[in-house]
Amino acid sequence: MSPTNRNHPFFVPLNPNDPLLAYHMPGLYNMDPTMRERELRERELRERELRERELRERMKPGFEVKPPELDQLHPAANPMEHFARHGALTIPTTAGPHHFAAFHPGLNQLERERLALAGP
């Protein structure tokens, strides 16, 4: 962003209507709360309609669904194979989420697909 001090040599005035902004703030952040709520409701309605339409498309008789036997699972999706790709002695000591979280039985491929189909 540009420096906020007006006396600064690189000061660039960026008000909400400024064409230098990549987007127009009044459209994004509508000051009128009733307009904001209405836009939010309309957006939620559109998203729900999209989700329902997608679900109906999937429920059509022609939609191909493989039986779970043919669905090749990722090796990490098997909850019994804790050390599928890293040996027991080479557990990484890096910062971040605990690596066993990737092997949680609730996170395997079928479960993820079921949760994705169920929606929020």
Task: Give an overview of the whole structure.
With 120 residues, the chain is mainly α. The protein is built from 3 helices and no strands. It has helices at 25-28, 33-59, 109-118. The longest helix is centred in the middle third of the chain and has 27 residues, at 33-59. The model has no long low-confidence stretch (mean pLDDT 69). The protein has a domain at 71-120. This is Arginine-glutamic acid dipeptide repeats protein. InterPro entries: Atrophin-like (IPR002951). It holds the Pfam family Atrophin-1.
What is this entry, summarized?
This protein is mostly helical and 120 residues long. Helix content is 34%, strand content 0%.
Shape, principal axes of CA atoms: elongated
Taking the sheet with the most strands, its summary is: none
What oligomeric state best describes the polypeptide chains here?
single chain
What is the strand content? under 5%
Looking at this protein, list some descriptive labels.
120 residues; mainly alpha; 3 helices; elongated; Arginine-glutamic acid dipeptide repeats protein; Atrophin-like
Record the SSE blueprint.
Layout: H1 25-28, H2 33-59, H3 109-118
